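Exercise 7. Predict the structure of DNA alkylation repair protein from Gordonia spumicola.
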Amino acid sequence: MSVSPESTAADISSAVVAMGDADKAASARRYFKTGPGEYGEGDEFVGVRVPDLRRLSRSLRGLPAGVIIELLDSPLHEVRHLALLTMVLNFSARGSERESWVQTYREAVVSGRVNNWDLVDCSASDVLGAWLVEVDDAGELLEWAASDDLWRRRVGIIGAYAFIRAGRADAILAVAPLVIDDRRDLIQKAFGWMLREAGGRIDESVLTDYLQAHASQMGRTALSYAVEKLTPDQRAHFRSLR
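Solution. The predicted structure, encoded as tokens:
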């Protein structure tokens, strides 16, 4: 089934379902921890690969906000993922509706529609973070990072990636005190990843100076992610500070 920016949410959802694969869906349910008590508990998958969703999103560039909001209400993970990928494309078009897309994104996060790490990671920096770089205000990321909710906090961390890509470490360094003591795996990984990116994209001293001062406070996973691209001697040194 072909879809276009004129397609309805129902038609787009049907197209995603038609692309599904039962074996891939079963694997995704395990990978994204959808069992009882796990972080993705109850999420539904049909088994569509991310590259296929990205290709489909390109054919939906220009999809109206109302349809994207309908797609974000879907119980199917891949349909929500497609909605976010399409939102990123629409936001990146730099039209007059950019601020409106940011508000739509905020509402999607608050309402629990952006509720797994891949959904956060494909959208937080490219919509919310990019907008905050544009208006030169990282303060909102601190509000997200201060939340106890797993996904809102991850939005605050990953949103800082837009600032890192713009050559600015201020956002992640401001977020850091709010998340350094959180030992949840998905927060640890995101935090360490952003520190590593700041060191690689801006200046290694941004990372090493931070680690020299704070490695002793960091969780093992966050530190492991942060030092991944340093030399063996550097990695050994910072791990010895824990």
